Structures are given as structure tokens and as C-alpha cells.
Amino acid sequence: MPKRKRTPVEDAIEGVIGMLEVDTLMTVGKLASATGLSWAVVDRAIGLAMRIQDYFRANRIEILSGNGKNIIIVELRVELTRLPEKVREWFIEEKFFKGEEKKRFTTEEARSILCSNIERIKRTRLEDAIDCVLDALELEDEVSVLEVSKRTNLNRRTIERVLDIFIRFQDWLAEYHITKLEGNVICRRHPDLYALDETRMLYLLKKFYLPHLVEVLSEEKERSLFQIV
């Protein structure tokens, strides 16, 4: 009997999110049946999407290539011109004038901060690689793929795979949020930041870009605040 072809986790994520219906509870088992994937693969795909969704709600990345280098650029996923003038002025003041400049780290300084000092006896899990790359991007907004490899002790091929996942799903994750509720999976559309009143707009801006200024609400309270079922 021929072995069943193994589905790459990237394709599994795409298959799963393609089957999710907004504001509709679905079990992992139902998603497995709908996609033709195993329960374990579907559960892992959901976990990976949830692992990176908050980062890409707030940020977008772009890969610039040239002169034999690939540079990762991180940009805030907020359109300043669409914010009310008062909110825009406050955000620019807090984020760019009062906020600390990101320090430029040497490779060794970054390695001491990131997960590169963890001994890896076995092959690195994709989940761990994703965490390492996200940590590296949180450290600096502009860094080469080669430098990320040096800082995290991950090989370039692994980093490129992680980045491919980021690029492939970042825009979807900026629009939708996946939650697990009592064993079920639910996909919700993010509140439209620009359609909110100033109080809720400020809460989201603080949560994603100025966490030191906000007391983050529980998921239940946040749903109530934004009138999400």
C-alpha cells in the first residue's frame, strides 16, 4: 500500500483557513474532514496561525533583494492618514518622539538576547524557528536574512521557509483572528480600527504598538468592548 503523501504545513494552514467561516464554531475534527488532513496536522496548522497572528495584526514585512542580499523590512500596519487628527498626533508623539530608538545590535549582542544559545541536539521544530525569527524582528526593524541566521543559529533555508509562511499569510492574519473556545475553533474579523470611536481606537493602538501604556483586557472583556459575539 503506497504511503500517504505528507502535506507541507504551509499548505495545511492554507487549507484550514480556507475552510473557516467567519463567526462560526468549527471543531478540529470537522476541519480535518473538510480538508482531508489528519486531526494532528489541522491542530498544528491552527496553532501556527495563532502563534503569529498578533504580530501581523500590528506589522507587515517585506523582503527586499539586491546585491546578493535579502533585507527584511518591518513596517507598522497602521495608516496614519486615516486616523483622526487628535489620535494621529498623539500616536506620532508617543511612538516616534517619546518612544525609545531601537538599538543597533552587533551579531554577538543579539545572539545573547535571542534563542541562539539554546542547545539543539535534534532538528529544530518549525514552531521554535518561528519564535526565534519573530524575536529577531522585534529586536530590529531592518535586518538581512543572513544576519538573522547568525543571530538565531538557524540555517538560511529554515529562515527562508519561516519568512515564506509570514509573507503568505500575513495579510489574511491582519484581517482575521483565530480563537479556540472549549475545543472549537472560531474565526472572527478584526474590528475596523478606523471606524471605531477614539476610546477604542486608542486601546488598540496602545495594545499593538505601545503596550507599556495599556492594561490589556481579558479576551472576554475585549470581545465585549468591541461587541464581538
What does this structure look like?
53% of the residues lie in helices and 14% in strands. It is built from ten helices and six strands. The protein has helices at 9-19, 28-35, 39-58, 85-98, 107-113, 126-139, 145-152, 156-175, 198-209, 219-225; strands at 26-27, 59-66, 69-76, 142-144, 176-181, 184-189. β2 and β3 form a beta hairpin. α2 (28-35) packs across α3 (39-58) and α5 packs across α7. The protein is flat and about 50 Å long. The mean pLDDT is 90.
Question: Could you outline the blueprint of secondary structure elements for this entry?
Answer:
Elements (H helix, E strand, L loop, with lengths): L8 H11 L6 E2 H8 L3 H20 E8 L2 E8 L8 H14 L8 H7 L12 H14 L2 E3 H8 L3 H20 E6 L2 E6 L8 H12 L9 H7 L4
Antiparallel strand pairs: 1-6, 2-3, 3-4, 5-6
